[in-house]
Design brief:
Elements: H1 7-36, E1 53-55, E2 64-67, E3 75-77, H2 87-95, E4 108-111, H3 115-118, E5 125-128, E6 150-153, E7 161-166, E8 169-175, H4 181-193, E9 200-205, E10 229-233, E11 256-259, E12 265-269, E13 282-286, H5 291-298, E14 302-307, E15 310-320, E16 322-325, H6 333-336
Antiparallel strand pairs: 1-2, 2-6, 3-5, 4-5, 4-6, 7-8, 7-16, 8-13, 9-10, 9-15, 10-12, 11-12, 11-13, 14-15
Length: 338
């Protein structure tokens, strides 16, 4: 025999309908964004050297590391006498030694967080100082499954700066290893090549009449096209590319550098895009003084194209990119404030 529907059950259906509408709207937004950023040459990518990501997810307080990775280097805190219950705490301890205007006393950390595998080493937090934080000393093992450690990098002021060299000037980026460790690990691999053959910018769209010079959206104006961005690829010849996992995905701000999907295609945003939500992994930010170079590129001659019903602007002449890393003391004073 059927049971009489209670009042609460009767009220449940409108809630379920609203939930369904919300989920459908979110799905449509994601699909629209995916189409808007469809790369001209879709490709697959992975970074198989390292394991999964461990740690927090908020970009403001990121403290992420990579499992099955052991960074070497001189210790500034010995883990045998310095222990925590989580990798976050180990990372935060390193960050506390990398604040203020002085040089970082700690720029890498190594933590053992698996009770079964770590045994008496469980909780050990080793704080270390890499000689070159853009070329960290990695303990390489043929079988990464044997690595019991989780490691991460921390970049202080003036550290972790790379340049995207173009014929129109160099766009300096501050990398975010505590928020996007897999992404930064891939960039570090590119830097080792001393070239970036195949890396280029192929799409450029200015702010139009929709965003002001500070990247703020102008009321009642459309949200694109144009979409206020420059887009390219960081897939270099000679590098095996697989998929970078989703990492910290904050709201896109003017100067944000983020992957499209799992890479290798990326974009630099010329505006604040709260309407895009938390979809894209942000792995760096452009130094404010260099946004004028990105703006200049966005004004270069383009041709119109349509990617699945979305109008985009493709550069008539794609711009080749070279990657360069910078030592803290060799970069001018503007970067030291980042």
């Amino acid at each position: 025999m059927g049971r009489k529907q209670s009042e609460s059950e009767g009220n449940r259906w409108p809630c379920l309908v609203l939930l369904g509408i919300t989920l459908l709207s979110s799905t449509l937004v994601y699909i629209a964004l995916s189409v808007a950023f469809q790369p001209r040459s879709p490709s697959i990518m992975s970074f198989s050297q390292f394991g999964s990501v461990e740690g927090g997810i908020g970009v403001g307080d990121c403290c992420r590391g990579i499992e099955q990775l052991e960074l070497w280097g001189p210790a500034v805190k010995w883990g045998s006498d310095f222990k925590f219950n989580s990798s976050d705490k180990c990372c935060e301890a390193c960050k506390s030694m990398c604040s203020g205007d002085g040089p970082c006393l700690c720029n890498s950390w190594v933590f053992c967080g698996d009770k079964d595998r770590c045994e008496n080493k469980f909780g050990e937090c080793w704080l270390k100082k890499q000689k070159d934080p853009l070329s960290p000393d990695v303990q390489a093992l043929e079988d990464k499954e044997k690595v019991i450690w989780t490691s991460g990098l921390v970049y202080g002021k003036g550290e972790g700066i790379i340049g995207l060299e173009t014929q129109h000037g160099t766009i300096h980026l501050k990398l975010l290893p505590d928020c996007a460790p897999h992404s930064v690990a891939y960039i570090i691999e590119l830097l080792k090549l001393h070239h970036c053959a195949g890396c280029h910018i192929y799409r450029a769209e200015g702010r139009g009449n929709s965003w002001d010079s500070e990247g703020n959206h102008i009321m009642e104006s459309p949200l694109g096209p144009p979409f206020a961005l420059i887009q390219g690829t960081l897939e270099a010849q000679g590098v095996t590319f697989k998929g970078i996992p989703a990492e910290a995905c904050p709201s896109i701000r003017r100067g944000s550098v983020a992957w499209i999907g799992s890479g290798p295609d990326f974009f630099i945003s010329l505006a604040n895009h709260e309407e895009w939500g938390s979809v894209y992994t942000v792995f760096g930010s452009v130094l404010p003084e260099d946004m004028e170079i990105a703006e200049k590129i966005a004004q270069l001659p383009t041709t119109s194209d349509v990617w699945k019903n979305i109008q985009v602007s493709v550069l008539e002449n794609p711009i080749s990119l070279k990657l360069k890393k910078y030592e803290v003391m060799s970069l001018d004073i503007r970067a030291k404030g980042s």
